[in-house]
Amino acid sequence: MLALIYFIVLAVIALGSALCVLLARHPLYAGLSLVTSMVSLAGIYGLIGSPFMGVVQIMVYAGAIMMLVTFVIMVLNGARDSKTPMFDKVSLFVIPAVLVLAGLVGFALVRSPLAFDATTLRGSVELTSKTLFDMAQTGPGYFLLFEVLGLLLLSAMVAAVLLAKKRLGSIETENTEVKH
Amino acid sequence: MDIIESKTWIEWVITIAKFAFCFVPVLYILLLIPMERRGAGFMQDRQGPNRSYIKIPYFGKIRLFGYIQNMCDGTKLFFKEMFAPAGVNKVLYYVAPAIPFAIVFLSPCVIPWFGPMVFDWGDKAVRIPGSIIDSDVGVLLLMGFSSLSAFGAILAGWASKSKYTFLGALRTSSMTISYEVCLGLSLMGILLLAGSFNLTDIVSWQENHVWGIVAQPVAFFCFLIASIAETGRAPFDVAEGEPELVAGYHTEYGAMQFGLFYMGEYSHICINSFLIATLFLGGYAVPFVTTETMQAHMGGSLAILCGILAFLALAFLHMLHRYSKKLAATQQTHRFEVLQEYKLYKICGWAAVVVFVVLGACAWFLFNPANMAINGFAIGSFATALGTALIHLLVLVVKSVCFCWVWIWVRWTLPRFRYDHVMHLGWKIILNIALINLVVTAVIAKLVGGN
Fold this sequence. Notes:
The structure holds two protein chains of two kinds. Chain A is built from eight helices and no strands. Chain A has helices at residues 2-23, 27-47, 51-76, 91-111, 125-133, 135-138, 141-172, 174-179. By secondary structure, chain B is mainly alpha-helical. Chain B has helices at 2-5, 9-17, 24-43, 67-79, 90-95, 98-106, 138-148, 150-159, 163-194, 199-208, 212-215, 217-231, 242-245, 255-280, 291-296, 298-329, 335-366, 382-413, 419-448; strands at residues 54-56, 60-62, 117-120, 125-128, 372-374, 377-379. In chain B, strands 1-2 form a two-stranded antiparallel sheet. In chain B, strands 3-4 form a two-stranded antiparallel sheet. A two-stranded antiparallel sheet of chain B has the order 5-6. Chain B starts with a helix and ends with a helix. The A-B interface holds A 2, 28, 32, 35, 39, 51-52, 54-56, 58-59, 62-64, 67-68, 70-71, 74-75, 78-79, 124-126 and B 3, 135-137, 140-141, 143-145, 147-148, 150-151, 154-155, 158, 161, 166, 169-170, 173-174, 176-177, 180, 196-197.
């Protein structure tokens, strides 16, 4: 009962702020609503017995990634974009996509059994680490995938740095590159 | 209701009473501001602000060693006009100072203020954790909260629509992100040794083995530097940067809105000191004494505690005595006023000595609660558990106050960094040291054995 009340409150906040992301005029407001949405999602994760997931959501997404996003928004736009129209040509693609996705998710939710016990742990620290790293239980699959994902992220980062560096070099020191 | 009947009433009382710990950082502000000002005075060989007074009959002007200055500052901030400069984003401008201050009330929830209280209540063994949220993810939650609190500075900087505040906000966000990484990585070594994110588990590991500062000295210094940087104080005050950016992200703020940022900063220091004390200095654990020993000789432990407090009161009295002797020998015109003021402190000091001695004697002779063992666990009475919790809390407070002093010490002795130097230190030095420390710890832990 108590869990249900918490869930409804958090879900309303999450959905409302997700709508705000779509409807906000200014990208910074959209970013902030996204943060609110993510924090309330973290609350829902905690509620269904996955405190680890919830905390990682707060730390990584709400804390670090959204911080970077706000950083980028502030650097790129500042106050300039506050007059953006709410709907433009891109909305022709975005709105159907959102509707179709909502329909799909709704369909999946209706079809799947919703009854679950909120007291069982699904994503606690122990359970997550066991699923990921306990080779006796799950075989090396998840472990290898985890490592490969790390490599993928690393290579993406290196590529981003290289791309940025090349652009900087071509603008500022065009002549020196020819000399080499 | 099931949820109410699931616990005995004493558990509910303690669980609700524990929420009072949320206000500890705010109370620490009262301690930290005079400490900072008088500390700065001490470093720079001057008095510091100690002239504000309250006048009471007979004793005259009471200054409380500069604590009255606090009240004056607070009153000034409260009664100043709240204003917003033209052109600011009104909503975010008013919301922004509240964010770091709201986080201040959430962060203390995961810190274990005392060891788990285990006691016997009507033939029922009751166990109450020392933190408000006894969660598996304790320390991660704290890191998450502290990363959220930077949003306040960012929004304030953006909403003020001024170049200085904007630059301050950008610097805050980049500093928070880079030092958050260092903070997390230097933390990992001790987490690896303790094998848990739960702060209570980490403290009990330290209690049974060695303190974190002995097991992980490198990580301790990385963590200390990173957390000083994260609070954004000198020498890492690039976000406020008085020589460059007026006052950084809160340039446009005045009155209590500025006060909220100011208090947020000091509470952040408090939280970080508590975190360092918990992670690296054994938290609530009393040095060289296990909790079991302490509980077995509860009366004696309380008597020793009272003895230490009485000794401190005597030291305070001795300090007053020396001051007044020095002052009486001079020809300063206000010396009689000050001596009159000291009379009050002397009365308070002697009263404290008498009270502590009496309390200690009572504890030694009268307070010998029986302990019994059920299933191998020593389960004492409620009084034992309460006494243990009190001692643990005092020990933790003493440890954290030491670290608060480190913050002030560092601020007033080291020259400030340039912005690129801060980034260089964070990403190229501390991060790598923390990574190497983590790898070495993991290898050694694996070789020595255990999981």
